[in-house]
Amino acid sequence: MLERLSDPRFKAISAPCKEAGMLAERVLSTNENPVFAEVGIGIGATSLALCRALDHRGSLWLFDFDNRVNELIVDLNDLGFHNVEIVGNSRRTFDSYGWTLAMLTRRAREQAPGGMFDFIYLDGGHVYQYDTLAAVCCKELLKPGGYLLVDDYDWTIAKSPTMRPSQNPSILLDYTEAQIELSHVEMICSLLLDVDPAFEPVPLGYLDVEHRRAYRKR
Q1: Quick one: pLDDT band at residue 210, thresholds 50, 70, 90?
Q2: From which residue to which does any coiled coil extend (predicted)?
């Protein structure tokens, strides 16, 4: 998978998320062996950056489709990174990373009631039916003092070059006009995180359009 990082066809997703790197370093400044999680791996740019930041300490958990995480872990192992855990889901219609996170959350309530992760980067499908459950689980799986970074805060189906109705007319069979125009991630943040007193916003330095939003668990 990592060979795609140098493929011009994947240029838009070939650079690691700088905000994820910043928050990872913030955690590492006070915790020598943290546990990170990335939900939605793309082609592995941020996964690789997080492995390098950990520098063989702690662990990194990756959540995505089975074939993607299975392919990426081979590449990371080949580079000498063996502190990686993968949790894959199938491509069946109603399976998703939300389901695997839910199953993990149930186990964590017994085995790690104080939370599992010091930093979670949620960069999934950025649509309501997947990321609502994922956000609920991430809130619980995050340790006190940990950080949650949510990607695609400003993304909408209407803006998507591949999903917008002009390019994909069948999208109108799946989503209403409001669902196409509104940001699902912004709605999830406003409903589940912005109003939760257990979470405080973390400024990321945006002066105009907010592309990602971060929170710290009190």
Answers
A1: very high
A2: none
